[in-house]
Amino acid sequence: MATSLRPAVLVTFLIATIFAIAHAQTSTSPPPPPPAVPAGWTTVTNTSDLAIQQVGQFAVRIYALSTGKLRLGFVDVVSGRTQPFNGGFNYQLVITVSDGPAPRNYLPYNASVWGILGTMSWKLWSFTIVV
Ligand SMILES: *[C@@H]1O[C@H](CO)[C@@H](O)[C@H](O)[C@H]1NC(C)=O
Ligand SMILES: *[C@@H]1O[C@H](CO)[C@@H](O)[C@H](O)[C@H]1NC(C)=O
To answer: What's the confidence (pLDDT) of residue 95?
Structure first.
């Protein structure tokens, strides 16, 4: 499994515009309250699942390599949801990341990843700190 996440082969960035596309509000009636989990997404029930942990590790590794922030380290997946997409799954994970040797800080990041388990096909869509 670890080799299937080798970054050099896998890094593909999709520009954040996909996520920035605004939702046009055409109706004048108030929007319904947002659902806890958007349609089409399934909440990850076990964030300790090996595959979920590996997706989290992949996201941190790719982000660290692509930004030169090599001290960032994966700690844990806090929560997540998945959505079938393009033959695989989109993963939206909140990940705890450490920022280096002691005294280290632990920071929550929001990662969007797409991939097909057991293959070399993985992409990091976005990786942003949760404010
Ligand atoms: C969650 O996954 C981990 C790792 O596979 C496993 O050890 C644990 O028992 C699972 N927990 C539940 C509640 O299924
Ligand atoms: C994570 O990012 C997605 C969009 O990329 C957004 O819908 C979601 O609300 C964010 N979650 C957190 C906890 O910031």
So the answer is: 98
